[in-house]
Amino acid sequence: MRSPDIAALARARGWNGYGLITCTINAGVDVATLSISGIPHDCLTIINNGRIGGVLNSGTGLYTRTRIRVYNYGTIFGGGGKGGTGGGASVWLTYDPINYKADAFGGSGGNGQGFSTSGSVTLVGATGGAAGTTGYTERSGSGTATAYGGTGGTGGAVGQAGGPGSSGSYTGTGGYGGNYLAGGAGIAAGAYVDGNSYVTWVANGTRQGLAIN
């Protein structure tokens, strides 16, 4: 189930707009991005026996600005963070840095684990980062130089930040010089709850990721 509208579902069952609601998520049921709206304070109780989670790359699991009660007997998680970008590099042959220069670019970070962003709700695994590019230059009989872009970081598991990207590097023979950039930091995991101060946790269950008040 993706982004269900609990208020609309309750009205379809005869809810009068201010009475108590109990929403039960059964074991084996996955709910992506549960956002609470259109319900007065202190009316809604959620009993979670399944999984409520954010989409991949730091998605939020549960969002509320309404006071609710939650019995979490299952799992609530934020989507894993994307991996950091790999660092780039440049290298040159020192006797002619303009004409004999090579650049390399870092690879993109892998995706963090989380529910799919469209279609049926499925849990998508984290992926590794992409390899960086390679740049090469040479001058016959005088030297060679190669720049290597760093590999992007691996995406994080649910509730975990992505890994850092690898630094760029360079090497050569003869007279050469160069510079490189460090890999980027991984992105933080998504929040299992945004609006934690509005939630009374009657049962905690498994909660993975950040909690935003």
Task: Walk me through what this model shows.
Strand 13 (134-139) and strand 14 form a beta hairpin. The longest helix has 7 residues, at 6-12. The protein has one helix spanning 6-12, and strands spanning 21-25, 30-32, 34-35, 44-48, 51-53, 62-63, 68-72, 75-77, 89-93, 101-104, 114-115, 123-124, 134-139, 143-148, 169-173, 176-180, 191-194, 199-203, 206-208, 210-212. Helices cover 3% and strands 37% of the residues. The protein is rod-shaped, with a radius of gyration of 25 Å. It is mainly β.
Topology:
Elements: H1 6-12, E1 21-25, E2 30-32, E3 34-35, E4 44-48, E5 51-53, E6 62-63, E7 68-72, E8 75-77, E9 89-93, E10 101-104, E11 114-115, E12 123-124, E13 134-139, E14 143-148, E15 169-173, E16 176-180, E17 191-194, E18 199-203, E19 206-208, E20 210-212
Parallel strand pairs: 1-4, 2-5, 3-6, 4-7, 5-8, 6-17, 7-18, 8-19, 17-20
Antiparallel strand pairs: 9-10, 9-16, 11-12, 13-14, 14-15
Overview features:
single chain; 213 residues; mainly beta; four-stranded parallel beta sheet; 20 strands
